[in-house]
Amino acid sequence: MVDTRTDPHTFRWYGGRISVDFTATLTGHIPHTVEHLRTPADLSHWSRAARLSDAPLPDATPRALDQARQLREALHRTFLHAAKPAPDDLDTISTWSARSLPGPRLTTAENDAPTLCRPRLHLTGDLLTLIARDGVDLLTGRHSHRIRECAAPDCTLLFVDVSRPGRRRWCSMDVCGARAKMAGYRARRTRE
Ligand SMILES: [Zn+2]
Predict the structure, then answer these.
(1) Secondary structure of residue 150 in the 3-state scheme
(2) Smallest Cα–Cα separation from 23: which of 121, 122, 87, 89?
(3) Which of 158, 150, 154, 157 is nearest to 177 (CA)?
């Protein structure tokens, strides 16, 4: 069951990595999940909100939407079970990651210094490849053991804990962290 009351364009950006933020396009627990990628156009909305593209992706079709959701779920499962990932999920991630992408270019800025010019994405396949590569980079990098799920019982968002002590518990201090603080405060007042 998908909750249709929530604005599908309310994307979450607490993950710290583009691949982790992409998994946040499906939120909540079964049976009250909220799908934020409901139509092919939502792929373009997400891509623009992530500042990866300027214009709608022309090949955002129902098939591309299916593929995007498959990649998302493969990434989500693998992030949660990074120590023992499912081979099928690694295949899905690798298939997208192995595609070629337009590379960065150099242009000259006003002072004639070379400036890095990152390519804007024009196709859904490029978007999924970029996301999958970020996932590969994260899963094989120094923060691979720091991918966590928010500690709030009703929140399923993942994040990468890059804090030095490594004790981050909430997807966002302003949302789930603040709610937990308030709940603790109320519980203490009830006991007093
Ligand atoms: Zn949370």
Answers:
(1) coil
(2) 89
(3) 150
pLDDT in tens, 28-81: 887 889 999 999 999 999 999 998 888 899 999 999 999 999 999 999 999 999
Please tell me the least confidently modeled range out of 70-79, 111-120, 149-158.
111-120
Residue 109 CA to ligand 1 centre (angstroms):
41
**Res 7: pLDDT:** 56
Determine phi and psi for 41, rounding to 5 degrees: -65, -25
Burial category of 170 from C-beta neighbours within 10 Å (exposed 0-12, middle 13-18, buried 19 and up): buried
Distance from residue 180's CA to the centre of ligand 1 (Å) = 10
The domain 18-104+117-191 having CATH identifier 2.120.10.30: the answer here is no
Residue among 185, 113, 178 at smallest CA distance from 152:
178
